[in-house]
Amino acid sequence: MKPAAFTYHRAHDVRESIELLTELGEDAKILAGGQSLAPMMNFRLARPSALVDITRVTGLDYLRHGADGLRIGALTTHRTVETASELAGFDVLPRSAHWVGHYPIRCRGTFGGSIAHADPTSEWCLLAVLLEANIVLAGPRGQRTVPATEFFHGFFATAAEPDELIVEIHFPEPARQAALTEFAQRQGDFAIVAAAVRLSSVDGQCTGGRVVLGGVDPRPLVVDISNALDGAAVTESTWDAVGELVAGQLDPPTDAHGSGAYRKQLAATLVARAFAEAAAR
Ligand SMILES: Cc1cc2nc3c(=O)[nH]c(=O)nc-3n(C[C@H](O)[C@H](O)[C@H](O)COP(=O)(O)OP(=O)(O)OC[C@H]3O[C@@H](n4cnc5c(N)ncnc54)[C@H](O)[C@@H]3O)c2cc1C
After folding, report:
1. Residues 42 and 127 in one domain
2. How far apart are CA 153 and CA 219, in angstroms?
3. Per the database record, which ranges form the FAD-binding PCMH-type domain (predicted)?
């Protein structure tokens, strides 16, 4: 398949990107790594009238780790995150990157593109919600920040306006005990279910935790496990119990990839597995 006709525009900086988006109207789309948009255009699931290519915009490709957390420029590739070292406290990001597509996709696809695309099983979307990241948007009305917990509105739908550009994803708080795991039918596929968790524990006792699931809802789903972990022992049986508790709260959809019941079972297993991995950190 070939895409429907569109006009092509190359932006060189953030200001020019915003000017082009404003001028071209809401049927224009940003082109970053093209790893989601190009297939969607080829299948004619997306028919933008114009593309604003931001791949040569300068100053949006960075990982900055400092006292105020981790800042990731929107054009940073998945591969750059995967190979980053010295991200103490945020190393769940490089550790999870291998789940994102295949190597060539990771070399071209961008962190900002994944967040903007808002696939509810996207690893970066899940981790942004898990770690309570902030999404920084630039537009004709200036810059604004939206918490990741409010950014995702549904399948491929976000709080970003058509004339806004994601410029940065800011992770304010490190999470030393965090893990993401998932199940997909083939290596590199989007997950059927993915589980991202963080844990806090002291002297073999849990003091808190957080669970975010993909593949069970149109958005990355935060599951309430309040109090379930407080004071519980750091053991396999705790993780199994939390997995069951999480699954009991889900009502996932049935589709060609699996039934709702299958997804619930996967969620129980993956949550337990993710907590075991987080606890080992
Ligand atoms: C075979 C295959 C398997 C894949 N598997 C996975 C997977 O397992 N997990 C996963 O997470 N992803 C997967 N992907 C998708 C991949 O991660 C993409 O890189 C990512 O979804 C989009 O990033 P991109 O830079 O390619 O964005 P593009 O494809 O260029 O754009 C995607 C969307 O985001 C918008 N956009 C891009 N950048 C910005 C920005 N800075 N501000 C505002 N809007 C923007 C575009 O307008 C478009 O609507 C897969 C892709 C393929 C082809």
Report:
1. no
2. 7
3. 1-176
Smallest Cα–Cα separation from 118: which of 93, 151, 163?
151
Our answer on whether the CB atom of 48 is closer than 6 Å to any ligand 1 atom is no
- Which tokens sit at 273? 């597995």
- CB distance 96 to ligand 1 below 6 Å: no
Asked if pLDDT for residue 124 goes beyond 80, the answer is yes
Q: What is the mean pLDDT of residues 155-179?
A: 97
Residue pair 211/195 in contact (Cβ under 8 Å)? The answer is yes
110 CB near ligand 1 (under 6 Å): yes
* Amino acid symbol at 272: A
**152: in domain:** yes
Structural domain count of the chain: 3
Are 202 and 275 contained in the same domain? yes
Q: How far is the CA of 117 from the centre of ligand 1 (A)?
A: 6
Would you say residue 82 lies in a domain? yes
Residues 159 and 70 both lie in one domain = yes
Examine residue 150 and state whether it is found in any structural domain, yes or no: yes
Answer yes or no: do 190 and 226 share one domain.
yes
Closest to 234 in 3D by CA, of 198, 279, 281, 197: 279
Residue nearest atom 2 in ligand 1 by C-alpha distance: 101
Å from CA of 32 to ligand 1 middle: 8
- The answer to whether residue 2 is domain-embedded is no
Residue 86 reports pLDDT greater than 90: no
Q: Who contacts 160 (Cβ-Cβ below 8 Å, separation ≥6)?
A: 116, 135, 137, 146, 151, 166
**Paired residues of 147 in beta bridges:** 134
Instruction: Give the residue-averaged pLDDT of 251-274.
Output: 96
Rounded Cα–Cα distance for residues 199 and 203 (Å): 13
